[in-house]
Amino acid sequence: MEALSGLLLVLFVSMISITVVSTALPQIIGALGGTQSQYTWVVTAALLTATAATPIWGKLADLFSKKALVQVAIVIYILGSVLCGIVQNTPQLIAARAFQGLGMGGLQALVQVVIAAMIPPRERGRYNGYLGAVMAVATVGGPLLGGVIVDTSWLGWRWCFYVGVPFALIALVLLQKTLHLKTVRREGAQIDYVGAALIAAGVSVLLIWVTFVHHNFAWLSWQTAAMVGGGVVLLALAVLVEAKVKEPIVPLRIVVQRTPALAILASVAVGMAMFGGSVFLGQYFQIGRGYGPTKAGLLTTPMMGGVLVASTIAGLLITKSGKIKPYIVAGTIILVGGFVALSRIDHQTKLVYVGAGMALVGIGVGMTMQNLVLAVQNTVALRDLGAASGTVTFFRSLGGTIGVSVLGAVLADRVASDIPKRMAEAGIHIPAGGAGAKTSTLDLHALPQPIVTIIRAVYGDATAHIFLISAIIGLVGILAALALPRINLRSSVDLAQTAVAEPEPASAEPAPAAVEPEPVAEPARTSGTVVTGRVEGLDRRPVAGALMTVTDYPGHQVAREVSKADGSYRLELPSGGNYLLICAAENHQPLATMLTVGLGEVSRDIALAGASVVEGRVLQRGGEPVHGATVTLTDARGEVVGAAVTGPAGTYVLADLYPGEYTLTATAEHTLPVAQAVSVDGPGSHRYDVVLRSNATISGTVRSARSGRPVADASVMLVDGYGNVAGTMVTGDDGRYEFPGLLPGTYTLTASGYAPVASRVDLAGDRTEKDIALGEPGPAVPLGVSPADQGEG
Question: Which residues form the Major facilitator superfamily (MFS) profile domain (predicted)?
Answer without folding.
Answer: 3-489
